[in-house]
Amino acid sequence: MTPKLQPSQGRLLISEPALRDFYFSKSVVLLVEHSPDEGTFGLIINKPVHLKLNEVVKDFPKIDFPLYLGGPVHPERLFYLHTLGDKIPGSLHVFGDLYWGGEIKKLMELIELKLVGPSDVKFFIGYSGWEPGQLNREMGEKSWIVTQATLDCVLADSPETMWGSILKKMGNDYAIWANYPSDPILN
């Protein structure tokens, strides 16, 4: 068995099959920030919502970008991940070519000029957050496993299959979970 990874910025939290929470059941969470002293900020990357971005954010360009539920904290706020780096002033590096946040007006301008598409940015309403020590407690309760993130995974356009696909790639110890039913009683 491979050694277990610990939470850190740029890694993924994969919910264990028994986690029955509305937000986190079969979820994949990108850890955007992680500090043992300050807590953890993450975004659920595989839970699309059925709203258009300009229905949620007034004055946003009329685009057909998917919108995701990032988590239960501040669902009235917009967050975004992107591959634009310095093209968006104020953005923060997560890992590799992935960044989050930055000046929204600049992003809107690039979208209006058609210089940015859905493969460059992913939008979220709300975020997932843990107080210092909380995520470690949840890991001890077997709610989460940690794995490496890749840019392809984070920006994937197949959220419905992401959880199972990642588990299959993790190998025999986890691949069996990939077909775990949403409600084991129905099994």
List the helices and strands and how they pair.
Layout: E1 11-15, E2 28-35, E3 39-44, E4 48-49, H1 53-56, E5 67-69, E6 73-82, E7 92-95, E8 98-100, H2 104-112, E9 121-130, H3 134-140, E10 144-148, H4 151-154, H5 159-169, H6 172-175
Parallel strand pairs: 5-9
Antiparallel strand pairs: 1-2, 1-10, 2-3, 3-9, 4-5, 6-8, 6-9, 7-8
Annotation field: number of helices? 6
- CATH architecture grouping: 3-Layer(aba) Sandwich
Proportion of strand residues: 25-35%
Number of domains: 1
Q: Which structural class should the secondary elements be placed in?
A: alpha+beta
CATH topology: VC0467-like
CATH class: Alpha Beta
What is the distance, rounded to the nearest whole angstrom, between the alpha carbons of the first and last residues? Answer: 28 Å
SSE order, as H and E? EEEEHEEEEHEHEHHH
Radius of gyration: 17 Å
Low-confidence stretches: none
Mean pLDDT: 90
Task: Give the overall silhouette.
Answer: globular
* Sheet having the most strands: 10 strands, mixed
Tell me what you see in this structure.
This protein is of the alpha+beta class and 187 residues long. The protein has a single domain (11-78, 124-186), classed as VC0467-like (3-Layer(aba) Sandwich). Helices cover 21% and strands 30% of the residues. The protein has helices spanning 53-56, 104-112, 134-140, 151-154, 159-169, 172-175, and strands at 11-15, 28-35, 39-44, 48-49, 67-69, 73-82, 92-95, 98-100, 121-130, 144-148. Strands 1, 2, 3, 4, 5, 6, 7, 8, 9 and 10 form a ten-stranded mixed beta sheet that branches. A hairpin with a 2-residue loop joins β7 (92-95) and β8 (98-100). The protein starts with 10 loop residues before the first strand and ends in a 12-residue tail after the last helix.
